[in-house]
Amino acid sequence: MLLYNNNEYDLMMILGFIVAGFLALFSAGAVAHPHSFIDMNTTFVAKDQKLVGLKMVWVMDEITSADLLYDAQNAKSDSEVWKKLAAEVMANVLGQHYFTDVYRDGKPVKYLNLPTEYHLSRQGHQAVLEFVLPLAEPQPLAGKPFEISTYDPSYFVDMTYKDKTALHLPPEMAPQCKFSLMTPKPDSSLQAYALSLDKNDAPSEDMALGQQFAQRVTLQCQ
Q1: Which DSSP category does 194 fall into?
Q2: Cβ distance 179 to 217 under 8 Å?
Q3: Do residues 172 and 48 touch, judged by C-beta distance below 8 A?
Q4: CA dist., res. 60 & res. 121, Å (int)
Q5: Which Pfam families is this protein grouped with (predicted)?
Q6: What pLDDT is attached to residue 199?
């Protein structure tokens, strides 16, 4: 990730927790990284033979979602309550540069500081954040592959795609593009280290712990 803040409380706020209640988020038995889990779903967004963004859907685990859903109560999905919560969550995600790295030919692809759209909703007992990450400059589809990773640098939050079915090519990209999903297999010592961390522990920045557990999506178009 290009820029980030490793402060543990900031990372929890990225998930939109309310300051007064977020300490109750985790169960007493939670002692190892990661403490929170997000299932991701991403659709590539293209226009005029150029990649213009990524449409992301993040489904938070039930414990992570608890405070958000409590604050929302029974408010309607289009109410000001949900809009306010969505803005708070999105603001903190933006503060961490969407938790996302996009590289092409070894160089970072820049993106805009504001999403073109975003939305927060309820899915049973889980909170769902949806947003479009817009690239600063549309990128020609043909050429060098795109390398995309989404992760929490501290590995406090586990952000993963269940499998390749969580990634989608729109019809206009399907004939000329293909993608792959690589899930790393950290060695046993690194896994043991992550398991040893308490929720109040922060791994060394030099370790790039979250990056070592991060999945990598490769998008190649002809």
Answers
A1: H
A2: yes
A3: no
A4: 11
A5: DUF1007 (PF06226)
A6: 61
